[in-house]
Write a structure and sequence with these properties.
Elements lengths: L5 H9 L3 H17 L4 H15 L4 H11 L7 H8 L3 H10 L5 H11 L2 H8 L6 H10 L2 H9 L7 H11 L3 H8 L6 H22 L4 H20 L4 H13 L5 H9 L3 H12 L3 H8 L5 H9 L7 H20 L1
Helix pairs in contact: 2-4, 3-5, 4-6, 6-8, 7-9, 8-10, 10-12, 11-13, 13-14, 15-17, 16-17, 17-18, 18-19
């Protein structure tokens, strides 16, 4: 086997001190990174690593972790043994080792989820969705903020909802959340709601303004923002957004009217579908009925006031005509 010399072996035999063992571990690890071993040599080196990973002396294990953390050929059982050791041994492996599987990391998060370890995993080059979910389950605000700020972290929509549930009022969370490259529209709408509530509290506490006026201002701002968020969202995203609005009693007459007045026809269609329980495809056919009877029937089934229906019909006609004119261009 190339690498360690007879002098190294003699030195280790004559002086098996922690310092010498650590130096030997570092040297062998560096050779493992740089040298192609034969199958027999590779098995021998791996067995030596397994023994060193159980060494009672921390500095020996630290030397292994520091020098093997980037090596994708590190045996998984050795990586796991190091990752479950004391922090000075575990953290280098947890931060960068690609040998650990998502299942390994989830298990470590759940069984050894100290703030330092969670922070190390949250900052990895790539954090799989299952690992992110486990971190959000038990992580502190600062750890979750680090996870959100990591562009390599995959976060499922359900996980992001849990983030908002736990930390939605925190600016430390809101900032990295809104700056993520992809943010589901349902999450964006919830953030708008949180910001609106903060604004309402500020208006009431810092300005001589009535509670009713403050509420009215905030609702207008929130509704405009919600309609704006829905622009360009795909059908699945719109359906999820409208469902969330309805569930939380935010799919109001005012929002429906604002939607059609701002020209967001698809949002308007999905809103009526949610309020009536009629599939959105059927709603589209009904509300575009030339005689207007389909819109009237749908509006009535949605439980919306009849007195505003003429204005809605007029706004709908304008939006449809504008879309037709655009196509003619």
């Amino acid at each position: 086997m190339t690498g360690l010399s007879m002098n190294d072996a003699n030195r280790l035999a004559q002086d098996p001190s922690p310092m010498t063992r650590a130096g030997t571990a570092a040297k062998l690890a560096q050779q493992f990174n740089a040298v192609d071993f034969s199958p027999a040599e590779l098995k021998l080196v791996e067995d030596i690593f397994r023994a060193m990973a159980r060494d009672a002396e921390v500095r020996v294990r630290e030397a292994l972790a520091a020098n093997l953390k980037h090596n994708p050929m590190l045996p998984r059982d050795v990586a796991l043994a190091l990752a479950k050791g004391v922090d000075t041994v575990a953290l280098p492996i947890l931060r960068v080792s690609e040998v650990l599987t998502p299942e390994d990391l989830v298990q470590i998060v759940r069984s050894q989820g100290s703030p330092l370890r969670l922070d190390a995993i949250a900052g990895r080059k790539h954090v799989e969705a299952a690992v992110s979910a486990a971190i959000v389950d038990i992580g502190s605000e600062s750890v979750v903020a680090r996870l959100l700020a990591n562009p390599g972290a995959d976060l499922a929509e359900q996980t992001l909802h849990k983030v908002v549930d736990k930390f939605g009022d925190s600016e430390a969370i809101q900032t990295p959340l809104v700056h993520r490259s992809v943010l589901p529209v349902t999450i964006a709408e919830r953030l708008v709601t949180h910001v609106a509530e903060h604004l309402r509290a500020h208006l009431l506490s810092s300005h001589k303004i009535s509670a009713d006026l403050a509420l009215d201002l905030v609702l207008q701002i929130r509704e405009r923002a919600t309609v704006g968020l829905a622009m360009g969202v795909d059908e699945a995203g719109l359906a999820a957004l409208v469902s969330q609005l309805k569930l939380n009693s935010r799919l109001t007459l005012s929002l429906v009217l604002r939607t059609i007045c701002m020209g967001n026809l698809r949002f308007f269609e999905h809103a009526l579908a949610a309020l009536t329980g009629v599939p959105v495809g059927n709603v589209r056919i009904l509300i575009h009925d030339p005689g207007g009877r389909g819109l009237a029937t749908t509006w009535d089934k949605a439980g919306l006031p009849k007195e505003v229906l003429p204005a809605v019909q007029a706004a709908l006609d304008v939006v449809v005509q504008t879309e037709i004119d655009g196509l003619d261009l």
